[in-house]
Predict the structure.
Amino acid sequence: MIPDWLITIIISMSPWIELRGAIPVAILEYHWQWWQALPISVLGNMIPVPFILLLFRVVEKELRKNPTFNKLIDKLFDKTRKKANTKVEKYEELALILFVAIPLPFTGAWTASLIAYLFNLDIKKSILTIFLGVIIAGLIVTILTITGKAFL
């Protein structure tokens, strides 16, 4: 049997689910106190971040060896950079914190890590700002779960 703490970490590491799913599971299903669920979920949510920031370069380099993927990546990156370029460049850290802090689908640590990579933001600053955003999102999800506003 897999321990509850490990399941909570795995859920919080999952793309798109992240701590938005892990905290309600820990509190409502495992009957943890909020002060147990929050740090474990934040920890789990942050585990993939450095790997995404560091290893995406390797993945991109390999994909770019294929001419079709190379063109696709260029189009995707160019389109994304044009759409968000001024906002991300102007508000780098604040933009990442707020992006992660709002606990909605596709606004978590995974996506923020990809954005940081895409805009070639400083890795150390990105990890710190994503971490702050994860803490804020975790607090919001915890409050919503405790008050009964979040449900499974």
Observations:
- The chain has one domain: 4-146.
- Residues 4-146 form one domain.
